[in-house]
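Entry 14. Ran structure prediction on the chain below.
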Amino acid sequence: KPPTGFLKLFFEAFKDTTVIILTVGAIVSIGVGIAEAFIGEESDCGDTSFQLISNFSHCGETLYESYNDMVHRYEIIEAEIAHLKELREAFIANNTGVPVPANLTNPNEYSKPGTYIEGIVIVFAVLIVAFVTAGNDYSKERQFRSLNDVKNDIRVKVVRGGDEHQVSTYEIVVGDIVVLESGDKIPADGIFIKGHGLAVDESVMTGEPDAIPKKEKAPFMLSGCQIVEGMGRMIVTTVGEMSEWGKIMKELSDDHDETPLQQKLATLAKNIGKAGFAVALVTLTTLFILWGIGIANKTARNDNIDWACEVQTVVGFFIISVTIVVVAVPEGLPLAVTISLAYSVRKMMKDSNLVRHLVACETMGGATNICSDKTGTLTENRMTVTEGWLAGNFYTSVPSTIKNDVDSKVLDYFINGIAVNSTASIGHDEVTKKPEFVGSKTECALLVLSDKLAYDYKKVRKDAIELQKVPFSSDRKRMSSIVQEGDKYVLYCKGASEMVLGLCNRMVNSAGEIGPLDASTVKELEAHIYRMADSGLRTLCLAYRENDSEDFGDDPETDMICLGIMGIQDPLRPEVPDAVERCKHAGIIVRMVTGDNILTAKSIARECGIFTDGGVAMTGPEFRVLSDEEKDKVLPKLQVLARSTPTDKLILVRRLRFLGEVVAVTGDGTNDAPALKEADVGMSMGISGTEVAKEASDVVIMDDNFSSIVKAVMWGRSVFDNVRRFLQFQLTINIVALAVSFASALLGQGTPLNAVQVSTSLLCIPLCPPFFLFPKYLSHLFRPYSCCG
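Output, C-alpha cells:
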C-alpha cells in the first residue's frame, strides 16, 4: 500500500478536537472584529469586572434576606459599589503611566476595534500546529516503513554457480535455487525440485491447517508459507509483488496498534480533557448567571442596555471557556510516548535490536528475568574442533596424527558422516575472499575439520546417493541420514554425545574392527565427555549403522556403531560477563537455558557470571518431573537449565510468569515458538534463528549477542523514565493553568492568558518533549526495577 501523502495528513490534523475548538474561536473572533471595524464605533461596555462582582454579591445576599429587605440592601450594596468605583478611579489617577492590563480587568477585551487581528493570529497558530502534526506523522510513518523493510529482510540460502550463499530476500531472482529447511519461510513462489520429507504449512494462503507434503506430483511452493518438516530445494518462478504473497501484502495497510503505555496516557489525556471541559462549562454557566443577574438589575433600574456591548461580553465568556479548554487538554501527552518509543526503536535498531512489536520497547523496561540461550548468544558461535576421541584413540589436538593412526575405511565413515549428514556449507565471500559459513556453526566446525584432513566434503556430498534425511531438532538432539553405498545402506547419526552414545551397542577401533561396547568402555567414554564438557567444550558423538536394505525398521537409530566423540570449543563473548554484571545491578536475574551437557553449561555459566555459589543447575528432564510447588521453591536459585527441550523452556517461562515475574526469553528454533509467544518479551536470533521463531518473537536480536539484549532493557527503562519526566512537566502546566484560569474567570478577572498567548504556548509545549525524552538516558541505565515503574 502506498504511503499516506503529507497533504492528507495535514488535513487529518484538523480533526483534532482542540484544533477544531481553536478554529471556531478564531472565526468568531474574526467575525466580531470585522463587524466592529465596519461599525466604526467603540462601545463603552463599562467595567465588567465590577459588574460581575456586584452581581455575584447581590446574588449571595438574596439567599439570606427576605424580599422586603432586598430593596434596602440593594441600595446599600449599590452605594458600596459606587464607593469602590471612586476608589478605583482614584487609584488609577494616582498611578498615571501604569495601565491596568485589559485581560486582567476586563474579559471583554475582544470588544475593541481590530480584534480580528487576534483571530488571524489564532488561525495562523492552528495552521502551524497542523503542519507540525502532519510532519511528525509523516516522519513516523516513514520510520515504521523503513523498520518494516528491515523486518521483512530475511536471509535465505540459495545455490548460485554450484555454491551455497546467503542472500537477502530482496536479492532473490527468478531462476535461483533456494535451499529450504524446517522452520524456514518460503521467500518466493517456486517449484519443488528435490528434498526429503518436505511438508509445508499453507494455512496463511489456503486456510487449510494440515501440512501439505511436497513432491514431484505436488511441486508448487507458495511464498509466505512455512516449512514444518523435512528439507528440500525449489527453483524460483515469481518474486516480489507478482508472487501470491506479494499480491496479498500489496493490499494490506501498515497500521500500528497502540502500546499499553500509549493507551494509558491517551486515556489520561482524555480524562484531563474532560475535566477541562467540565470546568469550562461550569465557568461559562457561572458567568452567564452573573451576566443574567446584571441584565435583570439594569432592567429593574430602567438603565439603557447597550446590546452590542452585551453581545461582545457574551463572546468574551465563550473565549474564556475556549481558553480554559485549550490549556486543560494535554495533547502532547500521547505524543510524548510516541516520540520516546520511536526514538528508542531507532536506537535499538542501531544496537542490533529489531523491534517487531512496539509494545516490546516498554515491556523490556520492566523485565526481571532473562532466560538466555548459550550458543551464539553468550558465546561467539565460532566453533572449532579442539579435542576428540576417534576409533579408540583420544586426541588433545585435532587433527594431529589422525590420518596416520586410523584405518582409511574408518576415516571414510567418519568423513561421510560429517559431509553427508549435514546441511551446512562453507563458501567464500566474493569481496573479502574469506570463508563464509552457511548453516549450523557446529556442522561448519566439522566441515573445517574434514578440510584439514584433506577431504573435499563437497565431492563426498555430491557423490553420495542420499535416500533419506531426518534433520536435527531440539527434542531429539540428533540428526540422521541414510545413504546408499554400493550394495549396502548406511545410516549416519550425530548429536548430543550422551544421547547418541546411549543408542550405540558397538564400537569400531583404529584398525577398522567392530567390537562390543562394554560397560568399561562406556565408562571411559563418559569420562572423556565429562572432562571435555567440564572445560567448556560442546561434545558431539558420531555413529553409524549398516544394513542390507533401505528399510532400517521402525526405530533405525538403535544398535549403532560408535565412531567418535568430538570436543568443540565455542569461545565466550568478551562483553558478556560485564553485561551479566550490569543486569544483576539492575535487579534482573539471568538464567542460562541450553541444550548442551550440564557440565559444559555450568562451565560457561560460571565463566560469564551467571552460575554463582549457592546457585542451582539442573537438567531439563529433572526440572520437568518436579511438581509445581517444587518448581516454585527451586526457581529463585535456578541459574542453569541444561539438556533442556523447548517444552522445558516453556514450562520455565510459565512458572516464572505465574510467580509475577516479567520474563524475556531467547530462542532460535522452530520449537521455541511457544516459549517465545508465552514470554512477556520473546527475543529470536537474527543469524541462527528460524523464520518461525522470528515470527513468534517481539524482538529480533540481529547479532545474536547477549549484550544487545541488555541494551534493549536499557531502552525499555529509558522509555518509562523519560515519559515520567514529561508527565511531571505536562501535568504541572495543565493543572496550574486550569486552576488559575478557572479562579480568574469566577473572580471576574478574565483569564491570565488570552487566545494569542494560549496559541503560542500550544506551539511551544510540543517542542519541549525532546528536552525531557532524549537526554541523560544513560544515567538511568540500570537502576533497580522498582525505580522504573
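The chain has 28 helices and 26 strands. Will compare against last week's run tomorrow.
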